[in-house]
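hi!! sorry for the late reply, been swamped w classes. u asked for the two structures so here they r. pasted raw, havent cleaned anything up. first the sequence of the first protein and right below it the tokens
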Amino acid sequence: MKKNAYNFDVLIIGSGAAGLTLALNIAQQFKVAVLSKGEITEGSTWHAQGGIAAVLDDEDTIDSHVQDTLAAGGGLCHRDTVEFTVRNSKEAIKWLIDIGVDFTKNQDSDDYHLTREGGHSHRRIIHSADATGRAVHSTLVDRARNTDDLSLFEHHVALDLITQPEPNGKRLRCAGAYVFNRARDQVEVFTAKAVVLATGGASKVYLYTSNPDGASGDGIAMAWRAGCRVANMEFNQFHPTCLYHPKAKSFLITEALRGEGAKLRLPNGEAFMHKFHERAELAPRDVVARAIDHEMKRVGSDYVHLDISHKPPEFINDHFPTVKEQCLQYGIDITKEPIPVVPAAHYTCGGVAVNLKGQTDLRNLYAIGEASFTGLHGANRMASNSLLECIVYAKSAADTIKASIDSIAPPTQPPEWDESRVTDSDEDVVISHNWDELRRFMWDYVGIVRTHKRLERATHRIKLLQKEINEYYSNYKVGNDLIELRNLAMVAELIIRSAVARKESRGLHYSLDYPKPANIAQDTVLVPMNHAAQKTIVHSD
């Protein structure tokens, strides 16, 4: 084994709910590595508040959950995916309970408390107060840190996937990844029989986002460069209610507040959601986000109010302790006054195209969680279906890997990362400038409401920006900011191309030039020039 080189049976890139769930389901049989870009608790899972949607109540049904998801998805959900996910929801929750996740129970019984969120016709959101992601992720991390044959690599950022010919020489397979070790400031080689992308979404491509800093679309960009199709990248969910405060950074106000009766109001106290949807505050997120955007522009306000102060203080303290504590840090007492909120980029509904097993176009490469496109979310993700998708697909991919890995030939040792023709940069200001410009024009031109002219401008800007970024990438040593900027620019291009291709308004994609949905609902599938499923390796004598 060469210096700075590691070999595992399975390499999992990403340490959120999806990645750790898969790791814990295979680590007893195989040698597994999990890469985390920063501290293992920094991902999106840790920050998830609301809960996990599942059919757990006797009055609820699988068909009802399926129909709610299909309705929210604007005609683009894949029914087989929705049914597969919902059918496995109860088992997924049972597994989380079995490993020790402490979900909230009713005060007067041992039954779990279920709440209701936008788009759901029943109470089916199991939660741990208003910090479900933290409860789930901390349990997964504790288990992972105490599991044999499971190695956690924090502060490791994947650069690019390693592809090699299969032993028969006819097709490519994924054989690992080049990884930047932030602590040592060097690139290392990780090889594996199976590689899993669990890198999360790409909401950092927008100026305002509810996501932590790491949501830079790394897995989507790497898979695209390796020849995998992506789908429905134009559908970026903007969470309707993020805290609006000059000192607050990316703090999401959970949708569960609206599920428990919180009202959206203009700064003058006037309620407005009833004018936009029959479910008012419980309308799907795309409707709520556009309604807030519309009202802010109509009255010239920078924010609207979310008010739950009419509920008893003890109810708020029991159900929303995290939101209350966070808001108090900014001088807002939610038991007595409304919360100023604004929409922000929240969830990437598109991603790397996969099947029900999490398999991508590239042999031995899997994608799960927000990095993947399963067809579950369609044109608009329904609240609390995402953590469910993470658990269900992680377990499905784990089962597939366990059944096939013994038949996979070990990868050959790839060449080391070549830094012989690059130098240390003395112009990092270029990275920060391009970073800011990219996120600003994506917010302005490819945001909640779009036009053909805005998308044309975005297309022009991304081409120029990518040229600058690629030139910089070719001449200087890599670092975390440069890696993320390169990936964000790639993802921005995919979002823009997908938005240009959709000549209609549907779900999260709203165009003033095409305000009505098309008669036929179709996915937007982008195919790279080096499409892995078509690639044939030709050996010359």
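now the second protein. again sequence first, tokens right under
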Amino acid sequence: MGWFGGYLRTAPRPAVPVGAQMLFQDPPVWSAGSPVRLSAAHGGRRLAVFGPCGATDADLDRLALAGDLPSLDSAATAWAGAYILIYDDGHGALTVWADPAGACPLYTCTFNGSTVWASSSLALAALCGSLPDAGWLAAHLVDSTAWTPGVSAWSHVEQVAPGQRLAAGLGTEPVPVPYWTPPALTREEAVDRLREDLAEGVRVRVAGRPVSCDLSGGLDSSTLAALAARCGPVTGVTYHPQGIKAGGDVGHACLVARAHPAIRHEFMALDDSHLPFSDLDALPLTDEPAPSAITVAQFTAQLRFLADHGAVVHLTGDGGDNLFMPPPVHLADLARSGHWLRLAADAQTWARLYRQSPWPLLTSAVRQPRTLAGAVGRMPWMTDYGMELAAPVTAAYPDTLNMGHADRALLTEARYVGRTAATENQLAAAHGIEMHNPFTDTRVVVAALAAPAVERWSARRYKPLLSDVVAGLLPPPVLRRGAKGMFAVDHHHGLRVNLQRVLDLADGHLADLGLINPAMVRATLRRAVLGVDVPWGRLEPALGAELWLRAAEKVDQWVTWEERAA
């Protein structure tokens, strides 16, 4: 996997990863296979930018020369892409900026009295000799999107809060400082910004490189494929059940490919070897449990398919649903602001969509806003001890930005997708594929967030905000379609085929830690085998966490470090 890191200030006995490229010596900064852009100015001032960034070389040179915090704070979100800024002031101290959307997560730990930062918590865990953090795991089982400062999946490794910069001057301890506040835009302004930043976010990743893109026929992947096609040839890959190569999602994918001749349309047939819960032992270790853990057989086959077709860069639509298909949590904001007539009208509209009475929605809007954002009650397999351990980690993150319920929910979801997409990118890197997720870019997330919450949804249009962004880019039938096909049937089928292997996961590390009741997990799995609808969104993270713990147990050495004289 490609990653990067360094020290916040001069260290007496720094440890550095074996084989890494040293970019700065004092304080040390390195790249372990991660592309970087560098700029320097007089007085020893130096700037490093990791990740795709729309800045020109001249932009970076001007920024390194200016070197003032207001300019650097602004630059951390000024350009399209997903990137991290590192600035050396020339006097032995560094400042790092964590992007507000969380798509480039940063972590820290303490080694020999010095603060080490890195883009990989797994790498820092190897340095510190850390073990998986039981409190984080418990919180992951209760609410996989939950996050509070000071924790990560590894003990003694902390994630830097998105939207904060971290610096340590000579003789001072590291201090995290918020540098970002969300803007407010009209809906029209948000659409214009999204159109510009999505296009530029794709361009900076694909220009002049062999690129592929998921082409499922849905709005998110179709948007990225069409934008990539404007930059040059792109391989659009449609995955389909074996023997079914027409109609539904496949038909919409074909429409997009025909509309953009630069798309070379390829098809990959999925058979029983790609079913969920297959080949679970193939899962490598990542920073935290990867969302694709249960579908690793299909994901691995897709990566091999892409590599065989010459792809170097691959675009996915992850994050699009979270930004453009929000739950009805804006009802809570209407209740809080006293807009009762609009609240009643919107609750009735949502109730018709859900085919239920509006009263539960109204009650939740007033008394339990988090349930409108998707929060559910305790899962039957969670133990009392697990719930107690999770409570401090799943506590509400302090709202220092004065955001409404809908805005907080959108940002929380976006940050979760961005952080976990980084684990998927680690899996892809093992196959020589750079995976990118433009919908998790800070400027894209911020533009969606800046649109008024009550105008992000519609009862009559699917993903109305994104539909307006790509008007004229995609064929009308693709713009007019509703939700894509669902694949729960594949999960039921895969579970039947691999039942014994999956049942064995119930009696593992999570049970040994006292976090789950294995009998209740097995009972839920057996219900799913019978075709009963189960909470896959909560069950899969639990099974994925067990697989992650087993992968951690098998790995003898993650990253090798060596100490050097200062």
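hope this helps!! also noticed smth abt the second:
The first strand starts at residue 3 and ends at 7.
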